Amino acid sequence: MKRLDGRVALVTGAASGIGKATARRLADEGAAVLLTDVNEALGATTTEELTASGARTEFLRHDVTSEADWEAAVARAVEAFGSLDILVNNAGMGDLAPIEETSLADWERTIAIDQTGVFLGMKTAAAHLKASGHGTVVNISSIFGTSGGFGTSPAYHAAKGAVRTLTKNVALHWATDGVRVNSIHPGFIDTPILDGARGTPFEQAMIDLTPMGRLGRPDEIAAGVAYLVSDDAAFVTGLELYIDGGYIAR
């Protein structure tokens, strides 16, 4: 028997990268998975790939900043698969500018996607997660939700730091409701977002800053998610799990 047989997961930002790897891993563990993303074409292709391999999956276009979209996504998961047991808040975006060059509009957009989207997801899914009997949430934060990074990207750092603390807050609130809430903090991960940096000094800098001397893989983050949402982690809530090759240990 697979660890997630009979369970239903909703994974945001699932069209590529960490989200895609997570959807695949949860499906491999036996879960039915609703993949959501704003990229409809890529999301549909990813879902078709997983379905072709035998997974129970569906796709829905989903803007995580929209409360109406969240209500539609949760309803779709329940309608398609009968329940909602697992929520993975993975959708996000980055920014690179220092604070002096960060406009209010850019700040608000990053906060809306990386922080408010996580709040809306947990709020909207709450009743179904509590009814599950083994509800669990994994919020994808970042090493930059804990450290100041390079002094740039203030909105990203602020949002990911908020996700870190919000995770603990809701974990405590739901501790006796049968819903566990944890965060994962990836380091530098080899995803399509880094395609433009391959072979450049920027890529080498990320490698050099990682004690293990390489970039992480999306499937390594997915493995952490699979553990946290399984009954193997039944006594784990409010945890921040660093999958970063040792970056935060410095």
- Profile the largest sheet: 7 strands, parallel
Mean pLDDT: 96
Element-level helix/strand string: EHEHEHEHEHEHHE
pLDDT under 50 segments (min length 5)? none
Number of strands: 7
Which shape, going by the Cα principal axes? globular
Integer-rounded radius of gyration: 17 Å
**Fraction in helix:** 40-55%
The fraction of residues in strands falls at: 15-25%
In the sheet with the most strands, the strands line up as 3-2-1-4-5-6-7
Give structural notes.
- By secondary structure, the protein is an alpha/beta fold.
- It has helices at residues 17-28, 40-52, 67-81, 104-132, 154-173, 201-209, 218-229; strands at 8-12, 32-37, 57-61, 86-89, 135-140, 179-186, 240-243.
- A 7-stranded parallel β-sheet has the order 3-2-1-4-5-6-7, with helices on both faces.
- Helix 1 (17-28) packs across helix 7 (218-229), helix 3 (67-81) runs parallel beside helix 4 and helix 4 (104-132) packs parallel to helix 5.
- The termini are far apart.
- The model has no long low-confidence stretch (mean pLDDT 96).
Summarize the structure.
It is built from 7 helices and 7 strands. It has helices at 17-28, 40-52, 67-81, 104-132, 154-173, 201-209, 218-229, and strands at 8-12, 32-37, 57-61, 86-89, 135-140, 179-186, 240-243.
Topology (elements, then pairings):
Elements: E1 8-12, H1 17-28, E2 32-37, H2 40-52, E3 57-61, H3 67-81, E4 86-89, H4 104-132, E5 135-140, H5 154-173, E6 179-186, H6 201-209, H7 218-229, E7 240-243
Parallel strand pairs: 1-2, 1-4, 2-3, 4-5, 5-6, 6-7
Descriptors for this entry?
alpha/beta, seven-stranded parallel sheet, 7 strands, 44% helix, 250 residues
